[in-house]
User: Fold these one by one.
Assistant:
Number 1:
Amino acid sequence: MNGILLPLLILGAILLLLPLLGIEGYRLRLLSLLFMWVALAGCWNLMSGSTGYIDFGPVAYFGVGSYCTALFMIKGGFPFLLSVFIAGWVCAALSLAIGLSTLRLQGAYFAIATFAAAEALKQVVLESDRVLGIDFFGGAHGLTLPSPPPGIFFYYVMLFFMGLVASLTAVIQKSKLGYGLRAIRDAEQAAELTGVPTLQIKVRAYILSSSLIGCIGGVEAYWLTYIIPDDVFNVMRTIQMVIMTLLGGMGTILGPVIGASFLTLISEFLGAKFVYDYLIFVGLVIVIVILLMPQGIIGTLVKKRGKSPWLF
């Protein structure tokens, strides 16, 4: 990792300076979007990539974070950053409740339970107003947020979250928590027999991942200024996080960065060339990459070049 520290610092400095060098409009928005997906895929990798527990419900925290930020800003009059901060804590509390019950399950049962929790939360937001006869979540019509600042603001906020998630992943990999997560992935029962508090470790990683996803959801809500349940709770967001991480390499630091960057850029390129059929080509590209590199791009490079600790 030390070998690429300097190149990463240089890359970070370049990304910080890009808007000041004249990058704007579509390119600025594309980079902001890319940072957001790298951060989201990194959050999913932080929990599922490290433990092997396939979480199909992270979009629940993305949606809750979006709605919490919107409600605090609209109804509470709170500033944006404070609203996002509170949304992160709300997601942390919610993930503690969900994690304590679902993380006792394994395999497909855990995946189904998290997926069901996400769909249940979506229905709560979608139907509460109609059932209770109130006007709070906005029902299917959603909520409109206050006017946002210029796009450069969200560029730096998304860049911050991307750097934060990547840094946290690198620190956790070398920490006691990281060793515990890998022990769970490799042999959970053996780890438990040797005294590793497996449930506690899984819950800690789940809360950290979910609260960060909630914060990113809040940022996107303010960026787009309009949210509806069918969008912020859309299961396709979860699938994108999973595919991006698998493409890059599960359980690695750079995997989500490479996978999210690759899929975001290839989707934008094909979307511009084939407006109506680009999803077919995106699907073909994903299938080909997975067939040729079943361990992901980073996993394949590691296998070919031998042990390269910095790639993890």
Number 2:
Amino acid sequence: MGEPVARLNPPHRPGWGDLPRRAALWRGLGLGLWGLVLLQSAASDRLALLLREVFHPLVWLAGALLLLLGVLQMAQAWRQGSKAGAPGADRLRRNQLPGLLGTAVLALLVLAVPPNPSFADLAGQRPRDTTSEEGLSFVLPPAQRSLTDWVRLLRSQPDPRLFVGDPVRISGFVLPMEGEPPQLARLLVRCCLADATPVGMPVRWPTTSPLPRADQWLALEGRMALESKPGGERLVVVPTQIREIPRPARPLEP
């Protein structure tokens, strides 16, 4: 008799053995990992495959907030270790574990597996960008125009004969076309890959070599030439030099 209360009911000390039973730990782990996914994507070229660069700061901010929330949740799990068995303790329930564990594993897979999207497949499922262009206020010299510059210029100047013989230096990915040779293309985005629309330039590929494969990134140098087709005439790129290039770090264009 007469033993002190603290000796009969010694306070529970936080320990590693209690942590896996805390729901806050797993919530924090999932939030922290997805925060790392966003930060790693923003720091690498991964985000440039999905989102225009002007929106990247938002991803940095969201990643930092998720990481902070994850750390706070894990700190809460550690503090709750001293309240084991107390009413309202955030114990991990059996039916919570698959969802929380799956979220963490999915985030780890996204971190570990580099993305390798097929721009040709995506472009094949999207409507072509046929937005008409008003008169352009500034036009680069022919050899300095990108593929997108050429497409916009040709929309604003309906007479293709004005550009016959102009030098061309463009790059893009190979986009298969139904019933005609593949074009060299780019994806235009206003916000992200979800609203991407393809634009392309017809190319008169050399007959001495096989056609390039879909998704191959190429740099072409050559000249513009006129080609007749049902319904009128159009300009095609007649390449004098074709080089295979790696996918650019910023493949999407505004």
